[in-house]
Amino acid sequence: MMTKTFCSMALVAALIPFVQSAPAQNYKVAPKPAISDYGPFTNSKITNTNAHPASGMCGNPAGHCLFYGGDFVDNPLSSNVANGLSNENTTEISGSPYGAATWVAFTVPAGQTWNVTGLFTNNQSTNGVLDQSPLLPEKAAFWSINEGTVPGSAGTVVASGTSAATSTPTGRAAFGLNEYTVEVRGLSVTLTSGSYWMAVVPQCTNTSDPFCESVFFLSDVEYINTTPTNASGPAEPLDAAFFDSPFFDLSFDPTNGTVGACGGIGCDSFSAGVLGYK
Q1: How far, in Å, are 32, 94, 98, 148, 165 from residue 213 at the CA level?
Q2: Structure confidence at residue 16 (pLDDT)
Q3: 3-class state of residue 13 by DSSP
Q4: What is the reported pLDDT for 6?
Q5: DSSP strand pairing (101-125 vs 242-245)
Q6: What is the DSSP string of 221-244?
Q7: How far apart are CA 229 and CA 224, in angstroms?
Q8: CB neighbours of 77 closer than 8 A, spacing ≥ 6?
Q9: pLDDT of residue 76
């Protein structure tokens, strides 16, 4: 059995408006992507639980699900502790096109062609707020689908962009953080059979908006000796995700293993999905 802890970066000074206390004070001296080095956060949790879409549907609002890795589970009675990684472009963790991104692996089965209309990630966040200003009226997220991704290399970009996005509470929470589905729709991407990696990175870069001093951590999925809760489509490949971050000076590091972004503690699979038709 693997032991998992929740992994991500820490934003201490910036979190003061939203978090009553944050133990780490030197993250800028030695930044790490693991929340276990700095957390937990202490803001209020969501107490309601949203009903999950019917079988074969996922996202917010529910759409036809080609792939979904499964729900984040924070079960204190489980031997596997919940996990996640930094996934964001904010005023504190910034970069081009993101400050940090977790890339999730998925597979289009042999003989199938997928028409992708949307992508989403489920992220733990202090507030879940995305960009919105007079200069940028649409809330936004960066997204990409790549193939041939390997350690140290993004591979080939199949399609990418920064698009209008929604951020919707899932009703799940842990570590003093609420979980939000950050989703882009209106895409038109055709995928043939093969292996791919996807990213949907929340964006909040308006320096005049204090809510952009936020954190987003892509939720891990408990995937040990069982099928993840509400998973749909082809099973998410285990230990195939990557973490890329100019802020943390990491270039497509594996998320798992002793030299991975989580330092050998979990990060085997993540809560993300692909919408569309085949």
Answers
A1: 17, 11, 14, 34, 18
A2: 25
A3: helix
A4: 40
A5: antiparallel
A6: ---SSSPPTT-BSSPPPTT--EEE
A7: 11
A8: none
A9: 54
Domain count, the chain: 1
Residue 8 placed within a domain:
no
Distance (Å, whole) CA 22 – CA 34: 14
Residue range(s) defining the domain that contains residue 184: 13-44+55-277
* pLDDT < 50: residue spans in the chain: 1-30, 44, 77, 79
pLDDT, tens digit, for every residue of 35-59? 655 556 665 455 555 556 666 678 8
State the pTM of this model: 0.83
Q: Which residues are CB-neighbours of 183 under 8 A, at least 6 positions away?
A: 59, 60, 118, 119, 120, 141, 165, 166, 168, 200
H/E stretch holding 173 reads strand 156-174
| Rounded distance between C-alpha atoms, residue 4 and residue 25, angstroms | 24
Say how far apart CA 199 and CA 105 lie, in whole Å.
9
Question: What's the CA gap between 22 and 86, in Å, rounded?
Answer: 17
Q: Would residue 250 count as lying in a domain?
A: yes
Question: Is 60 part of any domain?
Answer: yes
Question: Which of 272, 197, 268 lies closest to 238 in space, CA to CA?
Answer: 268
